[in-house]
Amino acid sequence: MASDGRARRAITPDFEDWGAINQKEGKRLASKTELALSIRIFFAALARANRIGHAEFRKDELTGFLVTRRRDDAAVATPSRQQVWQAIRRAKELELLDDESRLRCLVLPIHLWDKGVGGTTCVEHGLGGRWSPPRC
Ligand SMILES: [Zn+2]
Fold this sequence. Notes:
Blueprint: H1 23-30, H2 37-48, E1 54-56, H3 61-65, E2 68-69, E3 75-77, H4 81-93, E4 105-107
Antiparallel strand pairs: 1-4, 2-3
Helix pairs in contact: 1-2, 2-4
Bound molecules: zinc ion.
Zinc ion binds next to strand 1 and strand 4.
């Protein structure tokens, strides 16, 4: 994980520090074009993350998540790969994503994420298992 230990800070939160999010709502917020792209990427990770905080995407799927759409759902603008990469880098700087995050897998910081159900693998990071299409 993070070589500088920033994203793996030794935090021992009490259970009362934890909450839950609605992952479908996270997907909706990832498409909110009023938000900075780095924040939208964070919401995309929250929407897709498995039990170990890995959010895998098919090739160019993350970019599709971030398309700007009109009210009638027509695509208006698609961020370039470079813009998505810059936003991932910014999300890492903001400690919203772990340094291991890539275009094909966004990784939530371990001190931020826990989930009681779902997979515990990541093909992109070589954590075993076979990639299966996510439900969102
Ligand atoms: Zn991964």
